[in-house]
Amino acid sequence: HAKQSGRGRYSYFTAVMSERADQRLRLESELRTAIAEGQLFLVYQPKMLLPERQLSGMEALVRWRHPDGHVVTPLDFIPVAEETGLVVAIDDWVLREACRQNRAWIDAGLPALPVAVNLSLARFDPARIVSGLAQALGSSGMPAELLEVELTESQMLTQGDRADQLIRGIRALGVRVSVDDFGTGYSSLGYLTRHRFDAIKIDRSFVHGLPGDAGQKAVVEAIVAMGRALEYRVIGEGVETEAQAQALLMLGCNEMQGYLLGRPLPASAMEQLLRDAVA
Ligand code: C2E
Ligand code: MG
Ligand code: MG
Ligand code: MG
């Protein structure tokens, strides 16, 4: 009897698992098509200076317009793309498209603000990324100092020496590098002094509890103090309320990003925001 129910459970799990494997394979092949057939597009999330409430830059975030009509979030496909290595092609496309778009905005007389792209370190070859960056800058004619690369703290830490090599290569191009989702890694802080970063982005999990949560407030305060001492800009992510923005300002944060300022915008809406910034 026990054996039977055991076997029942076993076949149930294999069924679920092979369904998952099928889904994964399907997703992988759909993603390949998506890259090849131009189903990816970018949205842009503004960053703002905290005291002035002035547009200071933007982050390009990838989206996938699935043939079934849905827009798929990167949270649902970047992990599979990282496992399969497809993420390299996705990040490369994002980089080129962000440079092309930013250059087009500059050529149209709009304010030249830095654009940030996210780069996965799950599968990477430092030399290839650096030459990809140089190529993207060269072919778009975008000034290097207007490009910013966001690397997550946790991926930098797991990649060790290879990440160090990559960061040095990126910095040598004059491209900015910032630390994304700061505070969620392994709190090994040596890398912060080994490189000249441009900014530290405080993970939104620490911003969430502001201003009420004393613990989160203390963590944000400590990150700001450290960032300041190292002369890095400190950006609060995931700011959804005016109270959170006020708290970040009080704690000395330089910039913010979050739904309070707006959801990530299609290129046309981001362009309007840039026009409004000039007016
Ligand atoms: P991230 O780089 O930390 O980007 C911030 C994410 O938080 C974005 O989600 C953004 O929409 C979301 N967000 C912004 N403000 C708020 C807020 O006020 N509240 C809340 N709850 N969320 C907010 P998104 O666009 O879904 O991207 C998720 C993650 O996917 C990104 O996190 C990044 O790690 C990754 N990603 C996005 N685009 C790319 C890409 O082109 N390449 C790679 N490798 N990863 C990417
Ligand atoms: Mg980011
Ligand atoms: Mg982030
Ligand atoms: Mg994140």
Report the end-to-end length measured between terminal Cα atoms: 77 Å
Sheet/helix structural class: alpha/beta
Distinct ligands: ligand C2E, magnesium ion
Unreliable runs: 1-9
Beta-strand share of residues = 15-25%
Biggest sheet strand order reads: 1-2-4-5-6-7-8-9
Mean pLDDT across residues: 91
* Secondary structure tally: strands: 10
The residue fraction in helices comes out at: 40-55%
Task: Specify Rg, calculated over alpha carbons.
Answer: 21 Å
Biggest sheet details: 8 strands, mixed, barrel
Shape: globular
Order of helices and strands: HEEEHHEHEHEHEHHEHEEH
Number of helices: 10
Relevant terms:
single chain, 279 residues, alpha/beta, 10 strands, globular, binds ligand C2E, binds magnesium ion, EAL domain-containing protein
Protein model, in words:
The chain has about 280 residues and is an alpha/beta fold. The chain has ten helices and ten strands. An eight-stranded mixed beta barrel has the order 1-2-4-5-6-7-8-9, surrounded by five helices. Strand 4 (about 115-120), helix 4 (about 125-140) and strand 5 form a beta-alpha-beta unit. Bound molecules: ligand C2E and magnesium ion (MG) (3 copies). One magnesium ion (MG) binds near residues 180, 181 and 201. One magnesium ion (MG) binds near residues 180, 181, 201 and 237.
